[in-house]
Amino acid sequence: MMKECLQFLIEPAKKIKIRLKESRRRVKLEKKEPLVESQLFIMELARELNRVVQRSSILSHVWTSEDVWPPAVCRDFIVEWAAVLEKRVKPRLIQSVNQYEKPEKRDWRGHLLCMLEAGGEGDMGPHKRVIMDWTREIRSRPQNTVWPGEAVLMVLDDLELQWKRGRLQNLLPAMELLILAVMNADSPLKEDVTKQWLVRKQRSQKTDAARYIPHNVWNWICDAAEEVKLDSDSANPDLIISSDKKRMRCGLEHRDVPRCQWRFNGWWCSAGQEGFTSGRRYWEVEVGQRDWRLGVAKASAVRQGYRSLTTDSGYLTLRLERGLDLKALTVPATPLTRIPLPRKVGVYLDYEQGQLSFYDVEKRSHLYTFNDTFTEKLFPVFGTVEVVNDLVIRPADVRQPCLCTGPCLWT
């Protein structure tokens, strides 16, 4: 009887053990799934960059396949950077690919390209050829001869730390930064590589683009802090503006104010006192949890009535509706559904670059960027429907505390 009972317990245990072995075997096979061709291509590019750029060991995570990107991200990266390199570097490449060694005697790049163009990603061949032509050019540089600069190294260290902590999905931003460093190695613009990188990253509105802003890049943005104040002469009559012009909320009574064309009389909005026609400007706003609007309005934008405050009507704004729907008011609207709702929003205007960017100040992460060509004065715009909590413009000299858990690692 006892033997039968033990057998009753042993048989299910054996089945569970078999299932566990099968599960482990399946996981092991999935981990050994062969990398797609574009991933292999990027791994070799990372290896070559690591060879010529000093202190670029961060790329070892890429070329050892520790950091593997999704196929779609690989393809987008190759297409985007092929376009950049073709425009900026290809004029210097006089020799064509056919003038190099015969295919059977070429280095790994030639063999890889032949394989890629014959394989399942043949449509990527032209883009890969452009990048490989550029790679041939940098191969002429001896090992460790490109000094990226202290600013770039600080950004790389920051990105690697955030990647290890899980805040970055991949090290694509590091690859892009180092490509720019090599492209500008002999250029007077060498010291501006991190600024070029920021502008380029913010032109990308892909949902999987890296949102974290490295420490010294964030400080550079904040250095453009502007003391922005509300213009009570432009505020909707239903809004209550504080005496220091830094706070506003909806009142319970309609104010009796003079009518004028620059006053909002429909939407509960107010403009800033000063408009901007040049330079970099940055301001931070503590927003409500229910409904708010932030951005800029062109001088020619109509403020009266209930016309949609979108890019078509001269407004570049983000809006939170009903405490749920955060969106950029493009045409059509761009939902920002995968982004946690911010409590403090940073607004950064780079007039010459034609960019208006928004950040979650507490997480130091990028929310959205409008890309345009600015030709007229731009006024900050603020909107709220809150009747209890104020929308607050933070003082220009107040900085959000560093994200480091102990002493700051980047000072």
UniProtKB/TrEMBL annotation:
It comes from the Eukaryota. Residues 208-400 form the B30.2/SPRY domain. CDD domains: SPRY_PRY_C-I_1 (cd13733). Transmembrane segments: none annotated. InterPro entries: B30.2/SPRY, B30.2/SPRY_sf, Butyrophylin_SPRY, ConA-like_dom_sf, PRY, SPRY_dom, TRIM/RBCC. This is B30.2/SPRY domain-containing protein. The lineage of its organism: Eukaryota, Metazoa, Chordata, Craniata, Vertebrata.
